Amino acid sequence: MPRYYLYAASLDHSMDAQERSICFLGTSEDVAADADDGDGVVIYTPTTEYKRGESVQKFTAIGRITGDDIVSDPIDSGRLYARCVDYRVSARDADVRPLLEKLEFVGDADNWGVYFRNPKREIPEADWCRIAEAMGLSPRAC
User: Fold this and answer.
1) Cα angle 106, 9, 46; round to 5
2) I want to staple 63 with a disulfide (CB 3.0 to 4.6 A). Which of 8, 85, 109, 123 is the partner?
3) For residues 122 and 104, is the Cβ–Cβ distance under 8 A?
């Protein structure tokens, strides 16, 4: 049964990941190995650039992990591990704010930012579906 993950990435990193058909999962190979072929990923983008930039606060990419390969990639003076992802190119960016009251993993919509701080968070399938729909996709086709 697939699992669903929310990743936080700046817009420049989200665009890079989409161009390369990968998703950076963290600084540990073990973290990258936790995800399986067919698991869903959605990228939440807080800002235009890593640790700076203008506010974005949108979901900017959605897709599914493909295969079992783990990609090691030096980025921002560190090393990140990634998995291959089949992103849905027809998805459009979706504002986070209209969804806050509807997302199960957000326990307190007034303080929603704390739920998006971790670079990786497993989310319920129902939240995946709500986000996919907000991005203009059928969750089942996604």
Assistant:
1) 60
2) 85
3) no
